[in-house]
Amino acid sequence: MAICPICNIKFDNNDFTSLSEHFIDKANSSEPLHVMWLNRNITKTKVDKSKLGLAFKNFYDLNTAGLKLWIINRFIKDYRGENPHPFIIKMQEYNPYIMEGYAVEHYFFLKQWVRSCSAIISKTDYADIQNYEMENMITEYFGKNKKAHIELLLEMAEGYGIDRNKIMKTTPLKNTENAIKRWREIAEKNQWIEIMAAMHSLELIANRALRPYGARYDYFNYDAFDSRNVPDGVRAFLMEGYRSDEAHSMAALELIEKYSKNYNVQDIQDTYLASTYVFYNYLEARIERGEMIENKQY
Amino acid sequence: MKTNNTEGCALCDATWGEYYREIEGEKTFFCCNICADIFENMVKTVKKETGWNKIDYLELNGNYSKGRICMAKSGDKEFKYYYRTYGDGRLMEFKKL
Ligand SMILES: [Zn+2]
Ligand SMILES: [Zn+2]
Predict the structure, then answer these.
(1) pLDDT per residue over A165-187, tens digit each?
(2) I want to staple A46 with a disulfide (CB 3.0 to 4.6 A). Which of A122, A191, A225, B15 is the partner?
(3) Is the CB of A30 less than 8 angstroms away from the CB of B19?
(4) Residue A34 near residue A40 (C-beta atoms within 8 A)
(5) Which residues lie closer than 8 Å to A246 by C-beta, 6 or more apart?
(6) CA A45/CA A59 separation, integer angstroms
(7) What are the angstrom distances between the C-alpha of B11 and each of A14, A26, A99, A133, B45?
(8) Which bound ligand lies closest to the C-alpha atom of B11?
(9) In this structure, what DSSP letter does residue A74 have?
(10) What is d(CA A108, CA A286) in angstroms, rounded to the nearest whole number?
């Protein structure tokens, strides 16, 4: 299939003509989300249907490099390349409000995360996939001889004086809510390999091995956070992940690539695109929540 | 008022879309209403900050990701600032430079 990541509607495999018609239609009426997506992902210059169709064909083309590299390249372009995500820019220095906003909104991300991982397990018999997801859930929720990721997150918030019960009772911001809604739908409707691509691709945000692939920014500036001005809880939360092997791991993407031959690759690409579209907005919610906290609106 | 974006949208120079809004009494082309919102608010912010009653020219350098380093001109006066927004157009950061 080919997807419009904004409307989340699908067209037949390789039907880039219909996809282009859809976008041109929306652009002609200046629908802002479609125009913005075209500007950022395809081209800022208005082109006709056939040229746009060709551009979409190139956009989806794996260029013999394979699915793993396609996802990595797209992800870097959206988040950690020449035009990084604003959250990545914020993380190049230590800002307590950003970390507080991160802690609040990310709690809801993690709640959805475990639902998505368990959906993957429930939809496959492959032992390597099930084991991978179980390990992942254990790290997030229980930890192995160390604290669970979600516990480190809540302790970071508590270090700033935000009670964990307050976070749990918070209504997430609109962008977070919309993202969760989409991830939940993907977990319910899509195949295991698509859910895996939708979710585990997002872990590239903190991956430390992306420089050789062209990343220009790290998830955060290590020196800025490795300072006595930064609370222990923040360092524990960020550095735990930073030092672990997982920060270099491409294991999930390798599993996806391994099994992708048996599936419709374009459907896997679509699910990645649908997921990254809402993830981009979700990361803005971390900044927005931080700003609310700074302005004493939380 | 003119900007250094001569091809398309007054804010981002994209040529998609067909959205017009009156800015400072002039019908201005934008790719979408979010760019128009950002631009309109930017003009208001600059006028409020400087006390000018009109802006002749805006130079915008940057994009949605890094925000924009801008210079406004009114007569022989100049004002430099940094401006960035959320994806929906709401202001995230405004700084005098
Ligand atoms: Zn659409
Ligand atoms: Zn524009």
Answers:
(1) 999 999 999 999 999 999 999 99
(2) B15
(3) yes
(4) no
(5) A139, A203
(6) 16
(7) 34, 20, 31, 45, 15
(8) 2
(9) H
(10) 11
Which-ligand-closest: CA of B5? 2
CB A49 within 8 A of CB B18: no
Q: In this predicted complex, what is the ipTM?
A: 0.94
The pTM of the full predicted model, rounded to 2 decimals, is 0.96
Q: Please state, in angstroms and rounded to a whole number, the distance separating the CA atoms of residues B81 and B94.
A: 7
Are A35 and B14 inside 8 Å of each other by CB? yes
- Residue B92: beta bridge partners? none
pLDDT class for A297, splitting at 50, 70, 90?
Answer: very high
Helix (H) or strand (E) holding A24: helix A16-28
Residues of chain A in Cβ contact (below 8 Å) with chain B: 27-28, 30-32, 35-36, 38-40, 44-46, 83-86, 89, 280-281, 284, 287-288, 291
Determine whether B56 is exposed, middle or buried from the number of CB atoms within 10 Å of its CB (0-12, 13-18, 19+). Answer: middle
Tell me which residue in A38, A89, A281 faces B87 most closely, judged by beta carbons.
A281
Most B CBs within 10 Å, among A28, A35, A89, to test the B interface: A35
Instruction: Report d(CA A201, CA A49) in Å as an integer.
Output: 30
pLDDT single digits (tens) A195-245: 999 999 999 999 999 999 999 999 999 999 999 999 999 999 998 777 777
